Amino acid sequence: MKEKEVSASLTGHGSASVTVPFPETVEEAVSAWGEEVTYSLLRQEATKRLQSSIRSQLAQGRDQASIQEALASWKPGVGRPKVSKIEKALKLTSGMSDEELRALLAKIKENR
Q1: Tell me: the pLDDT tens digits for 19-76?
Q2: pTM here?
Q3: Cα(71)–Cα(54) distance, rounded to whole angstroms?
Q4: Of 33, 5, 1, nearest to 18 (Cα)?
Q5: Cys-Cys link to 4, which of 11, 22, 49, 59 (CB 3.0-4.6 A)?
Q6: How far apart are CA 40 and CA 108, in angstroms?
Q7: Regarding beta strands 2-10 and 14-22, do their DSSP bridges make them parallel or antiparallel, or are they unpaired?
Q8: What's the chain look like in SS3?
C-alpha cells in the first residue's frame, strides 16, 4: 500500500486533508478492508456509473426500451461502440420526405 493524501472542503467550514495507507490492488483492498467492504464499495461505484449512463441516455431523449437495449450489456469502464457518421446521418434523416432529402443533399453539395 502507498500513502495517499485525500482532501475535502465544505463551504463555510474550510478544508482538510488526511494521509492514509491506501490499497493499490484489489487484493490489498480485501486484505486491508475485508471482502464485504471492498465488494460494497465496488457495488456503490458501479451503481453510480450505471446511473450516470442512464442519465446520459435520458438526456438524449431515449425511452425506457432503448435505454435497456443500449445498456443491457453494460460494463464499467467500457465505452459503448461508436456510431459511424453515416449511421448517425441515416438515423437523423430517416423521417424526412424525398423533397427534404433532395434539399439536404443540395445544401451538402453547395457547402463542399
Answers
A1: 999 999 999 999 999 999 999 999 999 999 999 999 999 998 999 999 999 899 898 8
A2: 0.61
A3: 8
A4: 5
A5: 22
A6: 53
A7: antiparallel
A8: CEEEEEEEEECCCEEEEEEEEECCCHHHHHHHHCHHHHHHHHHHHHHHHHHHHHHHHHHCCCCHHHHHHHHCCCCCCCCCCCCCHHHHHHHHHCCCCHHHHHHHHHHHHHCC
Query: What count of residues does the chain have?
Result: 112
**Which grid cell sits at 12?**
463555510
Distance CA 101, CA 78 (A): 36
Cell of 32: 486491508
C-alpha 77 chain-centroid distance: 8
C-alpha cell at 50: 450505471
